[in-house]
Predict the structure.
Amino acid sequence: MTFNNVSEQFQKILKYIKSGVESEATLDCGGDRFGSKGYYIQPTVFSNVKDDMPIAQDEIFGLTRQNKALQLVFTENIDTANKLTRVLRGGTVWVNCFGVLDAEIPFGGYKTSGYGMEKGIYSLDNYLQVKALVTSLKNPAWL
């Protein structure tokens, strides 16, 4: 899906947030506009989300690039960061930083946000097909 302008995407995301609240999911943090300029929304986290809610069924990204799902976590509490990063289903999660990339750090999306991983050892999976082959060189005892 493409959007004619950033404002349209911004409004769409705000509607999803409102829908989550109205569906009685718990808004744990965020959910509002960030700053007074531009089209930024605070990082937003819901809990108590049911499978039939639109916020559970649709991939909701405030990014303009297709197929790039990025998750950001900002916190001073490392326990909070560890708990949140374990439950996030995203290919890349940055804690208290953004855009840190290296040739050895895998990068990619989950589900329809990307196919496979780029960079690091995991990028080889895109070119390999694993097969297990076991061959007995003696007559098997059960024959």
Notes: Residues 1-64 form one domain. The helical segments are 6-22, 54-57, 78-87.
